[in-house]
């Protein structure tokens, strides 16, 4: 048998794969990473987290100028939208960050195998015309958009688009219909609403943001409605007809009933994402996928085939960049014989709208159900941003902080936040939970004044009924 070409071959250079490759190389392992895209960084850097945040940030500033938030502070401006420049700064951010990964690969001596990889056996893959044998292979191929049956996405025509197409629209649509009230629909719907589009969101379920805490979902819905997004909940899209650059959607009540139509000049399909395994020839390696199309792994990220590992969106768990990154570090450490661990119970989740929406740990519903199994109960503390001095000063009254604890032990089980900087605030609770904190620990930690984070301290005080400012 020929020698191994590499100790580690990572397939896919998204936040899971590129981080795994860099960490493996740092640990002294001879490492390569196969990536078929022209730039490194995967979905996240090329068409996901980074470009969406570039558009969210720019459109937020435009919105503040155009819709009166700045005027409230005594700054009167009439903004003019220069969409080409806005797109340009987005592309610059992507170019710089993806180029940064290429630099890190060189610095750490990770070899980039350019092309899409397919297994030819349990330890060999084909990348272009190169056959590579590796002692360890990490599958980090990520995910792509779930298509809606019968609805053809054509990003170049700008009428029926997925998230990639929605980042690239050359002009502001008059009416954008977003199919799916999840994270992508709300973030990218917000971008185009802020820039002047009428936005309607059609959601199959009776509330937006599945997986989030129930009260947070309701409050978020209220805030987005106030901002002008229209919602059609409990409604399904059964077809989209395109004619002359316009789309007509056919809608039906989710439980069945009479169909109605809705006209739009842009339709964003954002009904979820599916793991990328097509073209990998998993069968040649002796692997299969589960019912959700994911590659199953154990606690250490090992698949059922020795020497093959899987991380990120292609493996079970939330499809989030930071989950993929942490798994990338852990898998490399496990391959190197160390103990790489990711605590999947404490992975924060953030929606980067205005205000932001963030959560970590259990929802109130899940916590109640879990503790009820052993006769336990939860205690909840809440604090409105309206009563937080910094939020008030900044004219950011919407939202609240909610902390959920075990009534018996006081240990924090989850936290949910709607606040302008909720994505930054949630890290504190994640860390506290990682250290096994009680709500009392948070309540008796000195928080700087005036900061939005004081609302976390007050909510923690509220778990015992003792908040000061409410
Ligand atoms: P990916 O980033 O999908 O990377 C996989 C890579 O593998 C791709 O580059 C692909 O080309 C490559 N590949 C696939 N098959 C092969 C093959 N056979 N051979 C070689 N290469 C292959 N998450 C967040 O946490 N925060 C956010 O703000 C956020 N925003 C998002 C916004 C949008 C619009 C989208 C679509 C997603 C967003 N996500 C966000 C999700 C995030 O992008 C993913 O969770 C993350 O990219 C997953 O990382 P990954 O490494 O598993 O896979
Ligand atoms: P999602 O799973 O968040 O939301 C999809 C929504 O579509 C759900 O509410 C679902 O009920 C609804 N839906 C499904 N089928 C439907 C239909 N036929 N008609 C109407 N509604 C329907 O998926 P989304 O928004 O596409 O995002 C995919 C993933 O990408 C997210 O789950 C997340 O993991 C990741 N992401 C993360 C971001 C972040 O962390 N800020 C930003 C963007 C994406």
Describe this structure in words.
Belongs to the class-I pyridine nucleotide-disulfide oxidoreductase family. Pfam families: Pyr_redox_2, Pyr_redox_dim. It is an enzyme of class 1 (oxidoreductase). There is one protein chain. The protein has 470 residues and is α/β, with parallel strands linked by helices. The chain has 3 domains: 6-144 and 274-335, 3-Layer(bba) Sandwich (FAD/NAD(P)-binding domain); 155-271, FAD/NAD(P)-binding domain (3-Layer(bba) Sandwich); 355-463, Enolase-like, domain 1 (2-Layer Sandwich), CATH 3.30.390. The protein has 15 helices and 22 strands. The strands form 5 sheets. Strands 1, 2, 3, 4, 5, 6 and 17 form a 7-stranded mixed beta sheet that branches. The protein has a 5-stranded parallel beta sheet with strand order 8-15-9-10-11. A hairpin with a 2-residue loop joins β5 and β6. α1 (15-26) packs parallel to α10 (321-335). The longest helix is centred in the N-terminal third of the chain and has 26 residues, at 83-108. Bound molecules: flavin-adenine dinucleotide (FAD) and 1,4-dihydronicotinamide adenine dinucleotide (NAI). 1,4-dihydronicotinamide adenine dinucleotide binds at residues 148, 179-185, 187, 202-205, 210, 236-237, 270-273, 318-320, 350-352.
């Amino acid at each position: 048998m020929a020698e191994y070409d590499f100790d580690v071959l990572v397939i896919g250079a998204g936040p899971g794969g590129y981080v795994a490759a860099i960490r493996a190389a740092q640990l002294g392992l001879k490492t390569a990473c196969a990536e078929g895209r022209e730039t490194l960084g995967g979905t996240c850097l090329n068409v996901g987290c980074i470009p969406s945040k570039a558009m969210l940030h720019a459109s937020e500033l435009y919105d503040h100028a155009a819709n009166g938030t700045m005027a409230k502070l005594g700054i009167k401006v009439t903004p003019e939208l220069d969409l080409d420049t806005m797109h340009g700064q987005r592309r610059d951010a992507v170019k710089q960050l993806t180029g940064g990964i290429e630099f890190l690969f060189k610095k750490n001596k990770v070899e980039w195998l350019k092309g899409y990889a397919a297994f030819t056996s349990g330890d060999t893959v084909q990348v272009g015309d190169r056959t590579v044998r590796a002692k360890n292979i990490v599958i980090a191929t990520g995910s792509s958009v779930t298509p809606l049956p019968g609805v053809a996405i054509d990003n170049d025509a700008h009428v029926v688009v997925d998230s990639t197409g929605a980042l690239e629209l050359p002009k502001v649509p008059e009416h954008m219909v977003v199919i799916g009230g999840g994270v992508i629909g709300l973030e990218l719907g917000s971008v185009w609403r802020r820039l002047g589009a009428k936005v309607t969101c059609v959601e199959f379920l009776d509330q937006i943001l599945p997986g989030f805490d129930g009260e947070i979902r309701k409050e978020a819905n209220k805030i987005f409605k106030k901002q002008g997004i229209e919602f059609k909940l409990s409604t399904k899209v059964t077809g989209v007809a395109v004619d002359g650059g316009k789309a007509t959607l056919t809608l039906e009540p989710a439980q069945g009933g009479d169909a109605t139509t809705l006209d739009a000049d842009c339709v964003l399909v954002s009904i979820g994402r599916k793991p990328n395994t097509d073209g990998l020839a998993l069968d040649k390696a002796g692997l299969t996928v589960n019912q959700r199309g994911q590659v199953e792994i154990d606690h250490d990220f090992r698949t059922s085939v020795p020497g093959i590992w899987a991380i990120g969106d292609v493996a079970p768990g939330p499809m989030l960049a930071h989950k993929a990154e942490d798994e990338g570090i852990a898998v490399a450490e496990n391959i190197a014989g160390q103990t790489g661990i990711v605590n999947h119970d404490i992975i924060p989740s953030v929606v980067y709208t205005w205000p932001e929406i963030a959560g970590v740990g259990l929802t109130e519903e899940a916590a109640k159900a879990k503790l009820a199994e052993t006769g336990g109960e939860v205690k909840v503390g809440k604090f409105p941003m309206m009563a937080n001095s910094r939020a008030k000063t900044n004219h950011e009254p919407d939202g609240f902080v909610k902390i959920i604890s075990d009534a018996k032990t006081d240990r924090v089980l989850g936290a949910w936040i709607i606040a302008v900087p909720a994505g930054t605030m949630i890290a504190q609770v994640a860390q506290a939970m990682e250290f096994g904190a009680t709500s009392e620990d948070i309540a008796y930690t000195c928080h700087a004044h005036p900061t939005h984070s004081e609302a976390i301290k007050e909510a923690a005080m509220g778990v015992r009924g003792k908040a000061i400012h409410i």
